[in-house]
Structure formats: C-alpha cells, structure tokens
Records
---
Amino acid sequence: MHGILNCYDRIVIAGHLQPLSYAKGMTKYLYKEQIRIFDYKEFAQPLCDLVCENAALIAQEHGVEIEFVTKSNETYIRQVIK
C-alpha cells in the first residue's frame, strides 16, 4: 500500500449509522434531536475535533504525516501516492 486518501465526500457509512448517510435521513435525525440545521456546525464540531485529534495521534504513533488538501487536485494526488 502506497498511501490512503480520505476526505469527507468519500466516507462510507455502514451499520447503524446508515440512516444518516443521505440528506433525508440526516434531516430526520436532526429534527428528532431538536437540532436546527443552522446549529449543525456547533453540534458536529466536538465530534469533528475528536476525530481529527485521534487521527493525528494514530498518525504520529505510526510516523505518518497528515496533509490537508483543500482543493480536489487529481494530478497532485497521483504524485503523492506514487
């Protein structure tokens, strides 16, 4: 394996979170939990921070560098994974 690329538009959600993997399911969940769509960022930020911290810790333990790519750049990505 040469590398792993991850980004939020390519996450595969399976198991008990499947209902959250499409817009209507997520909307239903937020409504049930009484979370306004405009408050979603504040709702999700602690989990996002936890995931980022855990990823950084795992990467550090394995001597791997995490690089955030802000634009979809297929040429750059191909160079990185070669």
---
Amino acid sequence: MVADAGLAGILLVGLGGALGALARFGIGRWVAHRHGRHRFPVGTFLVNLTGAAALGVLHGLGAAGDAALLLADGFLGAYTTYSTFLSEGVGTRWRPLYLIGTLALGAAGYVAARLLATP
C-alpha cells in the first residue's frame, strides 16, 4: 500500500511507525517495571495480542487511505513485533505455549475485534 501512497502517505507511515515503536517500548518497560522480568515474555505477548485486536477493529471499521497508512501500516506495523516474538519465543522454556498461544490468541482477537467493529 505504501508504494502508491506518495510523500504524504510515506510521512504518515513514518509518523505512525515512530509512535507505535514508542508505545511498544513504553509498554514493555511498564510491564517489566510492574511485574519484573519473567522467562515468559509478557510485554511482547501483550503488545502482539492488543495489536492484532486493534488491527481487527481498524479492518472492521473499514479504515482506508490515510487512516490505514497512519494506524495500520505505521503505528501497528511498528507496535507489533514479529522479530522480537520469534527471538523471545526461542529463548523461553515456555516456547510452545508462547508461540502457539500468541498466534492462536492473536488470530482469535483479530477476528473477534473485526466482527465486533463491523457496522
């Protein structure tokens, strides 16, 4: 979608991406401060599940154009994190639960949020 967005669209994705990365960083720090460091990556798990549900809401509401560039491609693209999900998943003894749980609950959250948000 970004390829045909033009300069304004690219700037929207960049702005959303910066805000999404800061939100992910802030939530990760908050979880670590509040609950301590666990072998189970609670912060990344929380971020990826809420991000999947938020994307479902955006799709359910029919977000398109600038709103989709800013929120879906930009914010949620940076907020959720596949690389950290895999990296932390490999390093935890909870690996099967974490990897399968994130995928299953993320998909369920996306579908449920999309259905609830669809007018």
---
Amino acid sequence: MYYWRVGTALPPGGVLTLHRDPYAGSLRYHLGLVTPNDDNCAIIVDGQRYSWRDGEEVVFDETYLHWAENKTDKDRIILFCDIERPIRRRSSLRLHFASASPCLCKAERPPAWLPTAS
C-alpha cells in the first residue's frame, strides 16, 4: 500500500536540514516533476547524493539521516509518496502518518505558479 502526497517545492537557495524519521513503517518515493535538472539541487541520504531530474524517481529509507538543498535559481517540484512496509500493528501506521503530516508542511512552500488568495 502507498500514500500519495502532493507535489512539494524547494525554492531556490532552499535547504531541508538534516533529519530522519525514526519510524520504520514506510519508504519514501520521489518523482521529479519540475526540477532544475542540475547537480546543485539534490537530496543526500546517508552520505549518498542524488540529484533530481524531471521524470526520474528515487526511493529511499527515511530512517537514514538525510537532507536536501537547492543551490540553483529555479524551484524544485516533486511528487512524493510513502510506500508502506509490512508491519504487524496497523495502529502504529496510523499514528505515523497522523504525526508526520504537520511536520512535512514546514518544508514546503507553494510553487510560484500556484494561484494564491488575495
């Protein structure tokens, strides 16, 4: 089972600080939608660097330390989802997703092309 999330943006000069998810209930999937297609826009997972590219995907274990940076002058927009790992307690999974959603919002900002209320 998987849980889709919305597209998320990392603005030019943006950094997501070093972190990890201590709950091992899922793997994280990223799909590059609109990216700078540049090695200066990347996620680093357990010391391994991956640069996002339009249409390319990456899956990683979010229990490893990871961080991201966008040292370009363009937005990075990706689609991501959590892929459920087999676990015995369904209540643990519900707790994980309920607690993760508010935290994920802190790393996002609406893309420039998204209309805003005025």
